[in-house]
Amino acid sequence: MVEECGWNPQPMGRHFDLRCQGERQRKTMIENRTVLLIDDEPQIRRVLKTSLGSKGARVLDVASGEEAIELLRRETVDLILLDLNMPGMGGSPLAALFVTPGCANHCRLGP
Question: Residue 111 carries which DSSP code?
């Protein structure tokens, strides 16, 4: 194992990081990405925000479709996680705004 991945244990406080050097340096797909969480339940937003943030994502969260539209007019995001069942403007009407012809790589909501 030492030969195949250049194993060199790195101290982490009182423990050692026993992963291969290449694995330690590998980035996750979510690292340095901006994620928008849209959910009316604060505990779900909190758990997802903590989890994604620990992987290096910048996480924005809102509680409604209306808040999401306002935020998306100011911010660009890489990924949207959307609750489909919310009061007010639910997820389905909001998702319909993103399904725009020619919107395969990026979507933009108004000026």
Answer: -
